[in-house]
Amino acid sequence: MLKRNYLHILVFLVLFVVSVTQSESQAGDDADTAISAAYGVRRKLIDDEVKDYLAPCERIGLAKGLQSADFDQIPPFSQMRLCNVLQREEGGTSVTYAGEPGFSLTGSNGNVFVEIPRHYALRYVKDGYEYRFVSARPLPGFVVDPAFVEGGRELPAIYVSAYEAHVRDGKMMSISGVYPTADGTRPEYRNAARANGPGYGILDLRTLNLLQNLFLVEYASRDSQAAVGGGWGKILQPSRGARLRCVLAEQNTNRFIVRDWSSYLSQKLFVGSAIQMVDWNDQHTELANERTIVRVAADTPRKGMTSIYFDGPPLDTTTDMMLGGAAQKTGWADSLKTPSGHTQPNGGGADASYRCAVRYRYMENLWGNVWHYIDGLNFKNGQAYVCDNMREYASDVTSGAYRLTGIT
Question: What three-state secondary structure class fits 216?
Answer without folding.
Answer: helix
